Amino acid sequence: MAIEPIQKVTLISPRDSHERLMRTINRLGVMQVTDLKDIQESGEPLLRSCDTRTEGVDEKIQQIDFILNLVNLLSPEKQSFIQGLAPVPLVTSPQEIQSVLDKFDLKQTFMNASDLDEKYRSAERVISEIENEMKELDPLSDLPFNMADFRSTTKTRLLLGTLPRKSLGLLGEGTELWNRVAWEEIEPGVTQKPITAISREPAPSPRTGGERVRIVTAFLAEDSEGVRKDLASVGFDEIQLPELSVKVSERIDELRSDLAAYKQKVDDVVDRVKSLAQGHRVGEGRRSLLILRAYWENMKNTRLASAKGAEGKWVHVIGGYIRKKDVERFLVTMSEEFPDSEATIQDPGPDDDVPVSITVPNLFRPIQLLVEMFGLPPYKSFDPTPFMQVNFYLFFGICFSDVCYGLMLTALGGYLAAKT
Q1: Where in the chain are the domains?
Q2: Fold type of domain 51-138+247-307
Q3: Top-level CATH class of 144-242?
Q4: pLDDT tens for residues 337-374?
């Protein structure tokens, strides 16, 4: 258990082969590329920073993310509890990757997903508006009159509202004005179909705890100000009626029919998204999308790593760090696949920001996870893994023994309860 010795590597290759070189380095996975933008000669620089664009790759990644987000929203993948705690890495092969690249039509799939997303969000927005309107209309669903008729009077005014039951006897008390006013209590009726089927909440009662009652008053238009003043003095609250030309119950029936239609649209979209997630041919489905995303993300990282190098008129230069034990394999691969390249291996300098790699036996891998979680030590310092292993196993040993002790007590308690 120790910090791995690291070597500094500088690789010079022909400029026309640098893309293939970066793919090979990425495939080997043994070199960490560093930034060489500051490499310059005195006077006119012989090397310049690489100009690597990733717009095309970024567009593909964004399209794949859009499709995956839609699939995960409407057709989420079922995972076990263990998979949720520790996601399983995606394992594939070069043959499968090439098959997906050849057969998956990303452009057409993205267009289909965009159309489905627009339909889904449009239907959800309308459903939300319908449900909100139904919630607002539900307390008035038992009104027996047409809303248009309620507002059609010219010389008289009709007013609907609530007031405390104890105030009913005070209406028009001692005023001549109320000799020209008629009022009637509206008893609560039964809604044809309860709104709770849509909102999953108790339908609000026309009365509040039995203390307030609904009344409708009729009076002359010229008496409107005086009647409203008298009603306000006894605790009258006007109910604002919706702008409808039919009964409230009829409007709710219309909304209920529209709601069912839009929910069917959502179900149709969900079925199509599930079909997209499952895939019916090779190179389709959620797994193919994940493979595509990993492929293009890897391509982007390779291009970004290439941009860290420097290039001249004929050559491309990259630098980085490699573990000492991987140097031989790296040099052999370079000499076989890139005979025109030149690699220089040297020890890192005192001012270099050297990456740290810690190698431990499989038995102590959990401790390595803790070390990486809290932060790796500097390159020239010591490996803290041996100092953590005693406390680590002691702590989890105590936890495990507590679990066993608890299970033993549970079993013993169950046995005694069964016997007594």
Answers
A1: 2-47+308-352, 51-138+247-307, 144-242, 362-419
A2: subunit c (vma5p) of the yeast v-atpase, domain 2 (1.20.1460)
A3: alpha beta
A4: 988 888 889 988 888 888 888 777 666 666 667 677 76
pTM to 2 decimal places: 0.70
- Chunked mean pLDDT (size 10), the chain, 420 residues: 82 86 88 74 60 85 95 85 67 89 91 95 96 91 84 87 87 78 80 37 42 89 89 88 88 94 95 86 79 92 84 85 91 90 88 80 67 73 71 72 79 80
Q: Which of 204, 184, 202, 200 is nearest to 142 (CA)?
A: 204
15 CB-contact burial (10 Å; exposed 0-12 / middle 13-18 / buried 19+): middle
pLDDT tens-digit series, residues 282-329: 557 889 999 999 999 998 988 888 888 888 888 888 889 999 999 999
CA-to-CA separations, 410 to 7, 400, 415, 418, in angstroms, rounded? 57, 15, 9, 12
Spatial separation of the C-alpha atoms in residues 22 and 308, rounded to whole Å: 11
